[in-house]
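Let us practice reading a record.
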Amino acid sequence: MTNGESAAGTLRRTGLGGSVLAWNDVLHEGPVPALPADELREVRARFFSQAGWGSAREILDDLGQRDRLFDEALAGDHVVLWFEHDLYDQLQLLQILDRVTDPARVELINIASFDGRPDFRGLGELSAGELESLWPARRPVTEEVVRLARAAWDVVRSPTPAAVEELLESDTSALPFLAAALRRHLEELPDVRSGLSRSERQVLELLVDQPRSPLQLFLASQDREEAPFAGDAWFYRCVAGLGALVVRPGNELVVTDTGREVLAGEADRVELLGIDRWLGGAHLRTGQHWRWDGSHVVRGSAA
């Protein structure tokens, strides 16, 4: 089991054997409310369909088949989970571990670096031989790991992001990359000064420096992340959501005067553009949302 088709395809070319299943869900985008698994699949399928990723029915069928295959694997002899340290992977790992009833059948490979690759960003960039070299690094999934994952999955799906902050005050060392990932999750809340999420702020800061093509902007934004997690399609969706703060008069994106005002804290992104976004189970709406002050979750309001 791994995070997506890139890593899954390479794992299939290793000599490790066994079946490989990709989880294929972008849980840091769209609604992830606290619902039973079958109802959550329907919510996710509708979201992806509305985002232009295909038929809701076909997506629902794919998610259902994924879950059935994983449950069948859990009923077998041995499952190995291959994941990275970033937000995308850590949220998937929580959802997966929440389904585990017998940890003795499960092992975990979870890495943040790879020898010889100083700019390592993910399993998908490793060769089959490099992935095989990670096999000795697998470790048993313990009851403690499963309990933490279930608690974290619950708070991610909570209707208030303050629940995530409360979890971060506890011991999360059983999943060593979880705390940093969940803090990055909270940084997607509008900040108290400008109403921008961290991703949005990075876009405007980079465009203040110079106009950039969409690809240049994506790559530069990735470089600002401690653990890059957003794919290009979802990044461009974020840029499009900035509306009048960014324009594209030619081949390059340019920050507008209004965008500069928001970045400087002289105007508020939520007040100008409104907000209708989900972060896990928290639905951020104009007039009813939460903000991030750099350390804590607060009720939504401009500074």
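A brief commentary: The mean pLDDT is 94.
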